[in-house]
Amino acid sequence: MPCFDTISSQDLARGAVLLGTGGGGDPHVGELFLRRQLQRGLQPRLLPLAELADEAFVVSVAGIGAPTVLVEHLLSEAALRHLLQQAEAFYARPIDALICAEVGGANAMLPLAAAALSGLPLVDADGIGRAFPHIDMTTFGIHGCSASPALFSDDLGNLARLSAVDNPSLEHMVRALAASLGGSLYGVLYPLSGAQAKRFAVAGSITQALRIGRHIREARAGSADPVAGLVRFLDGLEPGRRARELFDGKVADVRHETRDGFHWGQVLLEPASGSGEAVVIDIQNEFLRARQGERVLAVVPDLLCLLDSESAEPLTAENLRYGMRVRLLAYAAPPCLLSEAALAVVGPARFGLDSPWRSFLADDQGRAPA
Predict the structure, then answer these.
(1) Band of the pLDDT at 370, cuts 50, 70, 90?
(2) Alpha-carbon distance 48 to 203, whole Å?
(3) Contact 281/330 with Cβ under 8 angstroms?
(4) pLDDT digits (tens, 9 = 90+) for 72-85
(5) How close are the terminal C-alpha atoms of the chain, in Å?
(6) 107 and 25 in contact (C-beta within 8 Å)?
């Protein structure tokens, strides 16, 4: 397992942005939190999923709310330590390990910082292999694991203990709670046994994010086109998953709105060449769908990523601005998200999109015409 330093923590944050598909919160804030622990000599310990004991008690630590708000309400070390202590009292048993609910964005970095601060191991796995905006959108939830009972805190230390009849109900309760406490919360949720985690989690996702971030950094020095190099790297990273560059353009218009505990938006990309049809990307925390006219280029649960056109730096949705030169990349979703049961939870219909899921590889045409 890796030993973290400033460079590797930045690599992980960069990879988490890509896997976060625009959402999950700005991981660079979480990276600064982790770096503070490293400066104090506190090193997080990654635990391979296969080495987790079946009887272990595992919980997820996550930030919940609109990414535009999470960055303004940072959890202090004292509040995070208090949250974990209260969680052990709440569950009436010691926590044996932490696990990411999602590997995308800040929710990849916060659990790592929590592991360093608490001394608990962080399982090298997560609950979705990317980021999604709803609590119930995890492989844990897809397979019937309950996200509650759960404990939530704001940055001031106010605590709420919630139990719900199902995960969608907990999602509604938490959004209402977040709205009453400034728009963001931090939670301990999805209490699992080690056996459940090993059966349902997406294994190796933390080290995958680290490898992606490292590749992007190294490609800048050794590749004339780091975006093309990244596509080739992702193509060979995991069997059965492929990547494609879909569009090369610039941000011609972007709309941001924080509403109902989410960051909503839409991005218009014009071709870099100056001629051709524009691409529209729909946002609910994450990039959900890319359309070129009536043609859907890619849609959830496949991953949509916007990269700086020259450096291949992955970009978060809330930081997009007019005039940015970007390239649009699609990366196939983990196979576990493509079953009928999974698509009912994380497919386009759950977001109100009228586009059924169809792999962007179906025509294997590579980049959309610009």
Answers:
(1) very low
(2) 8
(3) no
(4) 656 678 888 999 99
(5) 43
(6) yes
Using a 10 angstrom Cβ sphere, with 0-12 exposed, 13-18 middle and 19 or more buried, the burial of residue 259 is exposed
Please give the radius of gyration of the chain, using alpha carbons only, rounded to the nearest integer: 19
Helix (H, G, I), strand (E, B) or coil at 108: helix
Q: Are 60 and 98 in contact (CB under 8 A)?
A: yes
Helix (H) or strand (E) run with residue 39 in it: helix 27-39
Looking at the structure, tell me whether residues 92 and 11 fall in a common domain: yes
Query: Residues in the chain, how many?
Result: 370
Q: How far apart are CA 1 and CA 142, in angstroms?
A: 29
Cis geometry, peptide bond prior to residue 168 (ω within 30 degrees of 0): no
Amino acid, res. 228:
A
What's the chain's average pLDDT?
91
- Angle, in degrees to the nearest 10, between helices 27-39 and 106-118: 20
- Taking alpha carbons only, the member of 130, 134, 56 closest to residue 100 is 130
The share of the chain scoring above pLDDT 70, in percent, equals 95
pLDDT at 369 over 60: no
More confident residue, 276 or 167: 167
305 strand-pairing partners:
329
The pTM for the full model equals: 0.92
CA distance 118 to 81: 7
- Tally of CB atoms within 10 A around 92: 6
| CA pair distance 17, 261, nearest whole angstrom | 20
Is-contact 197 49, C-beta < 8 A?
yes
Under DSSP, the state recorded for 132 is -
Residue 260 tokens read as: 């109902």
Number of structural domains the chain divides into? 2
Alpha-carbon distance 94 to 57, whole Å? Answer: 7
Residue 219 in domain: no
Task: Kindly state whether residues 174 and 264 are assigned to the same domain.
Answer: no
Q: Is residue 359 part of a domain?
A: no
Greater model confidence, 100 or 69: 100
59 in a structural domain: yes
Question: Distance between CA atoms of 41 and 37, rounded to whole angstroms?
Answer: 6
Q: Are residues 49 and 186 in the same domain?
A: yes
Q: Are strands 97-100 and 57-65 parallel, antiparallel or unpaired?
A: parallel
Report d(CA 138, CA 128) in Å as an integer: 5
